[in-house]
Amino acid sequence: MSKQYAERDAMALDEAGGYYMRHVMAMTGEKLHGKGDIAAELGWRDMQIADLQQKLEASEALMLAMRDDSRESRSKLELVVAENVTMKESRKRLGEFILEEIDADYPLNMDVKTPATDAMVNEIRAEGIEAWISSRNGGWNGTTKQAEDFASQLRTDAAKGGSDD
After folding, report:
1. How confident is the model at residue 52 (pLDDT cuts 50, 70, 90)?
2. What is the 3-state secondary structure (H, E, C) of 13-27?
3. Is 165 helix (H, G, I), strand (E, B) or coil?
4. 118: burial class by Cβ within 10 Å (0-12, 13-18, 19+)?
5. Distance between CA atoms of 27 and 102, rounded to whole angstroms?
6. Do 121 and 77 contact (CB within 8 A), yes or no?
7. Whole-angstrom Cα distance, residue 120 to residue 136?
8. Residue range 67-98, pLDDT digits in tens
9. Which residue from 31, 55, 54 is spatially nearest to 41, judged by alpha carbons?
10. Poorest-confidence range of 52-56, 57-61, 134-138?
11. Computed over its alpha carbons, how large is the radius of gyration of the chain?
12. Residue 119 in contact with residue 161, Cβ under 8 Å?
């Protein structure tokens, strides 16, 4: 049978947080003097630790799955944003074409406000700049601060309701 218990430095356990003396006092106060009583308590604690480890592993697996779902959702959202940007630009071009064809001297309002799309586009742009800086180990020609400021400004514009693109 392999050895399950190693010699422990009781003083170090107490210095680290009173772990030794707390148990000595509890066992004395609760009259856990026999090895059977102490072994039962240790067994119960082992069972609690195993349960907590199992819950931790399940939580970690759930967190990884949620991260993967989040990435997938982000990818889908980026596709929707790209489509919205294309539709917005197409509408703008259609308006320009109509004005040319009817030779109108009045404005034709084909501008569509898309603040959520604009905000998402600016977020994607900002992430691209940050990724670009990161790919250069955080520095490029001494103007990293300018790029960071620009990424921050894109996010600020997004928070205000988008851009005029």
Report:
1. very high
2. HHHCCCHHHHHHHHH
3. coil
4. buried
5. 95
6. no
7. 25
8. 877 877 778 788 888 887 888 788 778 877 77
9. 31
10. 134-138
11. 32
12. yes
This prediction has a pTM of: 0.40
Instruction: For residue 118, give the nearest of 85, 73, 70 by alpha carbon.
Output: 85
- High-pLDDT (> 90) share of the chain, %: 5
The DSSP line for 58-114 is: HHHHHHHHHHHHHHHHHHHHHHHHHHHHHHHHHHHHHHHHHHHHHT-SS--------
Query: What DSSP assignment string belongs to 16-72?
Result: TTSHHHHHHHHHHHTT--SHHHHHHHHHHHHHHHHHHHHHHHHHHHHHHHHHHHHHH
Residue 126: the pLDDT is 83
DSSP state of 146: H
Report the Cα 102 to chain-centroid distance in Å: 52
- CA distances 26 to 8, 16, 45, Å, are 18, 18, 14
Burial class (CB in 10 A: 0-12, 13-18, 19+), 120: buried
**For residue 116, what are the contacts with CB-CB under 8 A and spacing of at least 6?**
162
